[in-house]
Amino acid sequence: MYTTVFGARAACFILLRMSLAVYGQSNSSNTRPYPGVPADFSSFAAAPFWPYQTFVTEPDFHPPVLEISKQPEASDGLFVFAPLPFILNYTDRPALGLIMDQLGNPIWHSANGYLGQLEVQQLNGQNVLTYWTDGIGGGFVDAHGMGTITILDSTYRLIQNVTLNDSTFKAGDSRQNMPLIVTAYNSTPYNLSAMGGPEDGWLLDSLIYEFDLRTNETLFRWSSVEHIDQLPLNGTHQLHPNGSIIDGNNATHPWDYFLANSVFPLDDGYMLSYRHYWCAVALDSQGNVKWNLNGVDCGDFEPANQTGKPWAFSWQHYVRPRNGTADRNLVLDMFNNHERTVETISLLQDPEDTIYALSRGTFQRLPNEHKMIACGQIPRLKEYDDNDRVVMKARFGQNNQVSSYRSYLVSNWSATPYWAPATQEPGGNVTLSMSWNGATPDVYDSWMIYESSDVNGPLTDVSQQVRRTGYETNATLSAGTRLVTAAAGRGQEAMRQSESLQVELPTI
């Protein structure tokens, strides 16, 4: 037995940490995996729409308005998240990946489509942008496809796509290579009669892989099904209220009994969160279970305080070791998706704004010892200072209308896109609109405008320079301008120039 104090409750690893498959609950139409969760989301359609932004230069881009309030001591940085509407046929409010500043201005957006675990990480000492896509366009609910992990550099050029299909297995010391640690799912036939299910049943096997990105070789593989002797099926809480299993009758609707939703490397193994057991488990380098810590009875640990079970947690996300090793003085951070607390080192609560997020979520420790909480299913973000006071609140949608599986606040993302800026001049009103998707605030601060009264040019001299104002900047063109181009500028330096644009004469 172990004795520990662990914390705290709030609410793929280059090592990269990503997921290659499912991010949610079964999509069976008669399933209610948690109390109060509707079988479908049709009731949300009647809720009022959250306001969305529009831009002349990108008429199909509609990011949500970011409602934010912050104290002077709040951290600077950019929000990295991937809004996903629960009603997937909202074509004017599609799922996409976003980076936004703290004034609510978009910085970068992906093409339309769900991005799982959009995150800034490091590869070879350089910041990279990573995300997962399901390959079938199903979004969060149907994300059972063979997914792909994408790694982009700071110009948004593709470094590498990674899929399980490309990988070969070779055991080795992964930490001496370029490791990518991922979780994955596999629909697996299994005899579920011991749990009251069919003998020819199906369940979702939660898998961990570690790849060497240089060779695409698999250095480590772990399967929950192959360790049922150590983590038995009857430890799950993913059951109907009457105790019967949820789904499991066929490969399309397997029983999601385990759900490994985060993995993190330890010095000699891995820290794994398996949500449906309300557990965190330490694995050794061979994949054997060293110990488990659960929110029901503390598992292999003696609780530091028995009174009222203050250490209890459930349906957790994003378990991360803060310090120590798997065998000594280990401190854990986690996002607890239930309204029960943990034996705490610190307890992050906002008594003026209680939020109950049933699924998803992020706990992020910031460089200045502040903490950022993203509420997953609820589109809310909060920052706490080192005294656990709320110093920032942000919101990007109506509750239960939109979510983001993970959300982060980053201060280390600087990007200069490889593509040219976009310009648009709606015919005849002599206003030029300019934007450069992906360029961070440190890259450029103004727009240099080149104008010619001749439709054939040339465009050689800067006619005016205007300050950058958010994602899209507008400028009034000189009378008689027939040809125009704009360059993103930093001081007096032109960073990148748009294509030339012919200006229509005003209609009389």
Helix-strand blueprint:
Layout: E1 2-3, E2 9-10, E3 16-19, E4 67-70, E5 78-81, E6 84-85, E7 98-100, E8 106-109, E9 116-123, E10 126-133, E11 148-152, E12 158-162, E13 168-169, E14 179-190, E15 201-212, E16 217-223, E17 260-266, E18 269-274, E19 279-283, E20 289-294, E21 301-302, E22 317-325, E23 328-335, E24 362-365, E25 371-374, E26 380-384, E27 390-395, E28 402-403, E29 407-410, E30 422-424, E31 431-435, E32 446-452, E33 462-467, E34 472-476, E35 483-490, E36 493-497, E37 501-502
Parallel strand pairs: 1-21, 2-23, 3-14, 13-16
Antiparallel strand pairs: 4-27, 5-7, 5-29, 6-28, 7-8, 9-10, 10-11, 11-12, 14-15, 15-16, 17-18, 18-19, 19-20, 22-23, 24-25, 25-26, 26-27, 30-31, 31-34, 32-33, 32-35, 35-36, 35-37
Helix-strand makeup class: mainly beta
Strand order of the largest sheet: 3-14-15-16-13
Characterize the largest beta sheet: strand count, sense, and whether it forms a barrel: 5 strands, mixed
Helix content: under 10%
In DSSP terms, counting alpha (H) and pi (I) runs of 4 or more, how many helices?
A: 0
List how many beta strands DSSP finds.
37
Strand percentage, roughly?
Answer: 35-45%
Overall form: elongated
Detail the poorly predicted runs.
1-47, 136-145, 166-176, 335-344
Radius of gyration using CA atoms only: 25 Å
Distance between the termini: 86 Å
Mean pLDDT: 75
Concise summary:
The chain has 508 residues and is mostly beta strands. 0% of the residues lie in helices and 38% in strands. The chain has strands spanning 2-3, 9-10, 16-19, 67-70, 78-81, 84-85, 98-100, 106-109, 116-123, 126-133, 148-152, 158-162, 168-169, 179-190, 201-212, 217-223, 260-266, 269-274, 279-283, 289-294, 301-302, 317-325, 328-335, 362-365, 371-374, 380-384, 390-395, 402-403, 407-410, 422-424, 431-435, 446-452, 462-467, 472-476, 483-490, 493-497, 501-502.
